[in-house]
Amino acid sequence: MSRLHEKLKKAKKCNESRSPWNRYDLHYLTVNVAVRYVLETVEKEKTKKKHKDILHVTGNENRSVDGVAAIKNAVLRDFNTI
Q1: CATH second-level architecture of 3-78?
Q2: Residue 48 burial by CB count (10 A; 0-12/13-18/19+): exposed, middle or buried?
C-alpha cells in the first residue's frame, strides 16, 4: 500500500471514531492526502444525501510554510472557488 493510501486510511479511521458524520478533520494531513480525502468525502455525501452541509476543518495553518494555508487553498483551488 502506498504512503498516500496509508495516510488516507488513517484519516478516515480517525474521523470515523471522533467526528460527527458530516465533519471531516484535515489536520496533520499532507496537501495531497487532504485534497483526495475531501474529494472522496464530497462524493460520499452526495451519494448518500445524508447531510445538507459538510464541514472540512483545515485548522489555522500554524505549521504551514510562511503561514500560507496550503491545504485550504489547494482544496478551494480544486473546487474552482479561488
Answers
A1: 2-Layer Sandwich (3.30)
A2: exposed
Beta bridge partners of 23: 55
Q: What is the pTM of this model?
A: 0.73
pLDDT one-digit tens code per residue, 18-27: 666 778 888 7
Cβ-contact 10, 36 below 8 angstroms: no
Domain spans of the chain, in order of start: 3-78
Q: How many helices (H) and strands (E) does the chain have?
A: 3, 2
> Residue 24: exposed, middle, or buried by beta-carbon count in 10 A (0-12, 13-18, 19+)?
buried
